[in-house]
Amino acid sequence: MLQIYQTQLRSRLMLGTARYPSPAILAEAVRAARAEVVTVSLRRESAGERAGQAFWSLIRELGVRVLPNTAGCHSVKEAVTTAHMARELFGTPWIKLEVIGEDDTLQPDVFGLVDAARSLCAEGFEVFPYTTEDLVVAERLLSAGCRVLMPWGAPIGSGRGLNNLFGLKALRAHFPEVPLIIDAGLGVPSHAAQALELGFEAVLVNTAVAQARDPVQMAGAFAQAVEAGFAARQAGPIEPRDLAAPSTPLIGTAFRG
Fold it and tell me: Does the model's pTM come out above 0.70?
């Protein structure tokens, strides 16, 4: 089981809800992924009252937990205000905190992120900060009150996978007791498996599933990859070697002189 704040989850795959071809395909993808948590952009879904009501009906039918996010926010004030609206609307202290600092890469503004996290944690929010793999920023977020971190694998929607393996491995090693969830940039199921093999607790995927030719099949593939990656980590992978190591021992083997 995966413990996030006071909640235990069976699934280690979280799913975003944006950019699906239709609500029906979204619902099928969530079921195929066996996801227990979905992220929702408050701004997008509340843009139209009728569309918003239909969306919430769908989410309730799926029986999943909602992780609202502050997607599209570029300032501390904007992110904090959106978080308060989300808590009032959804009745949850959970918030995926995004403070975007650069438009081309959608890289987090880590300075604003820490300030917003400190403010929200002090008000009782359970914050999931979308951050980089920077160790100093991670320490500041934990000191601010965050109990989980969501480092990016690559820029949002890029599908590039885990861009900075050294940095991500260092983050995992420095904070062994902190739940780490790879958020953003995963493109194929093997990227998710790799993240779990490295010791990350879970992954959050949106574009790679929603924009696939068959989102439902891709969601199922990601679910299998996450399970395989976690099982491999639990099994204890061998360390890479520079030289060959024969799998068949030579001792006791007959040979001709």
Answer: yes
